[in-house]
Amino acid sequence: MKQDPAFYADLHCHSTFSDGTLTPQELIHLAKRIGLSGLSITDHDTLEAYPDAMKHAEEAGLELLPGVELSASHQGQSVHILGYAFSLKSDAIRRLCEKHRERRLKRYHDILKVLEAHDMVLPGEDILRRHPAGSIGRPHIALAMMEKGYVSSVEEAFKKYLGKRKPCHVPGNAFSVDETLDAIRQAGGLAILAHPHLISRASTVSELLKMPFDGIECFYSRFTQKDNKRWLRIAQNRNWLATGGSDFHGAVKPHISLGCAWVSEDLFRTLMNHYIKANAHE
Ligand code: AMP
Ligand code: ZN
Ligand code: FE
Ligand code: FE
Predict the structure, then answer these.
(1) Could you give phi then psi for residue 260, rounded to 5 degrees?
(2) How many CB atoms within 10 Å of residue 44?
(3) What is the atom index within ligand 1 of the atom nearest the CA of 19?
(4) Residue 18 CA: which ligand 1 atom is closest?
């Protein structure tokens, strides 16, 4: 998909602070190596990768835009919302991330109990020790299941046990879309509906498209040009931003490479200018 523009930016990837397998520093060095000019690290429900990542990006000469991917739910469907260009010091967004941390920890222990009932025993405290500050999620459990030989891939763990309607699924009970949009707004950021094609119920997508988002993710790994066009038309009709990124996770999703979906300089500049303007006083 990349056609070698002078400037390209990947606005969606995960570090070891959530369920990615590269540290923020490794992500930044990889981004530089493959020729990206801009990046946003969008960990699930945590800002822990920043501001340390800012320091490394500055040293490497890479433009880094503050980002996060917040889990929400609507009509029982999981909805991911990307926040960009917000203040990293905002209490509103930090409070929401803290609530997610508690929610995730509780769900983690609940999932381990269900797995135990299915004769799969995992070293719960060891896994947590490896992720002391970050946002614990199902991929960490899936990797531990692989290590124990219960499954042969992360994909298999989701397909057989951890995914929706599978025997060891525990609902996430994430917060509402309204509450999530509110926190991003209060932090001065922009809210983007992430990978809309992954929301299976069409009526939920229709409802979401009536909500006050600032944009929609139109470029995503493994999107065809037809997909791109469909979501671009929706963005244009609403005068929304059309963002994009790979959703790179490292070894958790080995088929997705950093930079395989990206945005051009114009869009990146729009987001960066929003951030600079909103944070000029800090
Ligand atoms: P959680 O945030 O704990 O609910 O876990 C959801 C995350 O798991 C998603 O954001 C993906 O990164 C990952 N995930 C979901 N489904 C799969 C799958 N089939 N294979 C690999 N990773 C997955
Ligand atoms: Zn993830
Ligand atoms: Fe997501
Ligand atoms: Fe993601």
Answers:
(1) -75, -15
(2) 22
(3) 12
(4) 2
